[in-house]
Amino acid sequence: MSDVASQPSRLSSIAVLTSGGDAAGMNAAVRAVSRSAARRGIDVYAVHEGYHGLVTGGDLIRRMDPAETDGILHRGGTVIGTARSREFRTREGRLAAARNMVERGIDALVVIGGDGSLAGANQFRQEWSGLLAELVDTGAISAEIAKAHPFLRLTGFVGSIDNDMSGTDMTIGADTALHRIVEALDALHSTAASHQRTFVVEVMGRNCGYLALMSALATAASWVFIPEQPPAEDWPAQICRHIKADREIGRRHSVVVVAEGARDRDGNRITSEHVRALLEEGLGEDVRITVLGHVQRGGAPSAFDRYLATHFGYLAVERLIADEANRPPELIGLQNNRVVTSPLMDCVAHTQQVAERMNSRDYDGALRLRGRHFRESYRITQTMQQAAPRPVTSDRHFRIAVVHGGGPAPGMNAAVRAAVRLGLNHGYTVLAIKNGFKGLRNGDIQEMDWIDVSGWVSEGGAEIGTNRYVPEHPAAIAETAEQIAAHHIDGLLVVGGWAAYRAAHELHRHRRQYPALDIPIVCVPLTVNNDLPATELSIGADTALNSIVVDVDKIRQSAVATRRVFVVEVMGHDCGYLALMGGLATGADRIYLPEEGITLDGLAADVKALAERFRAGKRVGVIVRSEGSDRVYTTGVITSLFQKEGGQLFDARQAILGHVQEGGNPSPFDRVQATILTARCIEFLSEQLESGGRASAMIGFQGGELRFTDLTRYPELVESDVQRPVEQHWINGRELAVVMRD
Ligand code: ADP
């Protein structure tokens, strides 16, 4: 390549397009690209109707003012449209596309689509200099224009409900689709239970069983068919036996989930009709089919999709700016809970390999390529499905107990359900302690049976009760130890938040003094606040974030006829996680966190900046304040301040979201994680019990891995005077919030 040809010009304009199937979160991505670019003084052109718009040009490629992206974060689909384009598959089409770009001074492109769209973009980039040379030859553009755009800067990320792309653990839209499917399955469960009926539900996923697998795990489906792992040869007999056995132990209904692309070991499709006919014959009862179809694509994006798309969009702009040397294109993705980049074409090739493995019937290979999280979810789905109460035959009959602590959090029941079923499956007696550690001290303990936890996977609240009591006084510890001894508790599973962890540590701390306390104890992080040590994320927080997002969407809508600033207070005690993530997912103008506090100067600057925006036509402002941000500048005080200073420009109202954040049915993510983490913890307890070990631990997500941290380390991992851990990974999102704010 000649020196002249490789001289890049300063990046001044970026085009962004959405392509392939639409996915919730695409709007959040476009908004993020627009705002991030504006901060860096770069123009953004929205290409409407995907590659069709890029080829057609004209009005389909329009400069986008960042203000145009106000009010799109919460909308499903893609406001700039998507289309399939046959022309772009041809060189002719790509020639027109290149001309349309350089004529507008654009040589940078963000593509949000599936693997097809990204592969197409890569081809376009490879041909770029050839296309421009041809345009110069035919006189369509000048040599100067061609020289000014020596290469195409390209980056992309995946918008696809299928979650079928390598290079990212999650694609944008998959979490929202899972929400839609789980809502539908929950609804079907209630009607199916009323009539003792079986439903066969077909969900999307031609090559990828992600949606089928996770929705089955999140709703306790009786059976699931996914393309990556065809069932055993004798599956028709197995599935009938399985559902009959379920009925015999008292389950009133069954739901079978079938992925669109499900197949048998010979590669023949397993259709929902096929499954229905077989079950009707085997069970001798009516079986109904529900094909969920396009509802799975629709609706408002989930909190996670909004956040993820925002982060991806931001990084896309940063990476394009950094590309000064015709770098091979990158895919932006989420890996191990970190937003990272990987070589785009490696990801495309890897993705296509999964399909090839399935076509050549190398199913184990296909499953391996799907990654660890998928495999673990598959393994646990199978274990939960197959787990059945067995008569205890061994002498080593252990008794394990499960207890909550802290505020109620969505996912608690799912965790107890998994503990009961998996504990029974090990041949153990499983005890539920009622009303937290107070119940343990008082001996409020009940033996649990298989059917006692039926339906609990989807229920909010905490059926066995929870509270914030921590046994601290010597008498409390002594009485607790007595109860543990009296009930012959060999191992303790603690599922909850701050108080639960403190209580677990208190008991563990006194194990030398009281032999009854010298048992393995394992803690599962389950609180909406996400304020626990030894984990980057607690279960329950995702549901709370979705609750915040739904409420703030409504609050915004309520202000249509007025100019108004809402000061929204969210939970968190001393931890700003819900405020930051909730603020990012709702497009908050300002976010106040306990980690940073609030100052008078800061408030004055914020009032001034917002007033400026209202003067320029802004209609609704949202400020998200974490409940523990500041003792003096309360939500009321801040609201009064904005009300006074808003004058004629806007008025101000407060909205304290309160306990709704702890309620509601758990999100799909929280159900799945509650089940997976509990399963791991039961394995941990089992290993300790069977080997005579006494280790105690806290399970948690650390850089995407599930890890156990010794419970003795608890004091060093938490702040001594406030309720939060020493390390908080999520705080890095602060920078993103500043870029995104208005
Ligand atoms: P997805 O991006 O969801 O995988 P498609 O495979 O349908 O969806 O691709 C969307 C669009 O991307 C196509 O209509 C076409 O314009 C473009 N495209 C896909 N593959 C290629 C390719 N190999 N070369 C050029 N363009 C392509």
From TrEMBL:
Belongs to the phosphofructokinase type A (PFKA) family. Pfam families: PFK. Keywords: Allosteric enzyme, ATP-binding, Cytoplasm, Glycolysis, Kinase, Magnesium, Metal-binding, Nucleotide-binding, Transferase. It is found in: Cytoplasm. This is 6-phosphofructokinase. The keyword ATP-binding applies. It comes from Mycolicibacterium agri. Pathway: Carbohydrate degradation; glycolysis; D-glyceraldehyde 3-phosphate and glycerone phosphate from D-glucose: step 3/4. Its EC number is 2.7.1.11. InterPro entries: 6-Pfructokinase_euk, ATP_PFK, Phosphofructokinase_CS, Phosphofructokinase_dom, PKF_sf. PROSITE patterns: PHOSPHOFRUCTOKINASE (PS00433). GO terms for biological process: canonical glycolysis; fructose 1,6-bisphosphate metabolic process; fructose 6-phosphate metabolic process. It catalyses: beta-D-fructose 6-phosphate + ATP = beta-D-fructose 1,6-bisphosphate + ADP + H(+). Catalyzes the phosphorylation of D-fructose 6-phosphate to fructose 1,6-bisphosphate by ATP, the first committing step of glycolysis. The keyword Ribonucleoprotein does not apply. GO terms for molecular function: 6-phosphofructokinase activity; AMP binding; ATP binding; fructose-6-phosphate binding; identical protein binding; metal ion binding; monosaccharide binding. Its main location: cytoplasm. Residues 14-319, 399-685 form the Phosphofructokinase domain. Its cofactor is Mg(2+). GO terms for cellular component: 6-phosphofructokinase complex. It is an enzyme of class 2 (transferase).
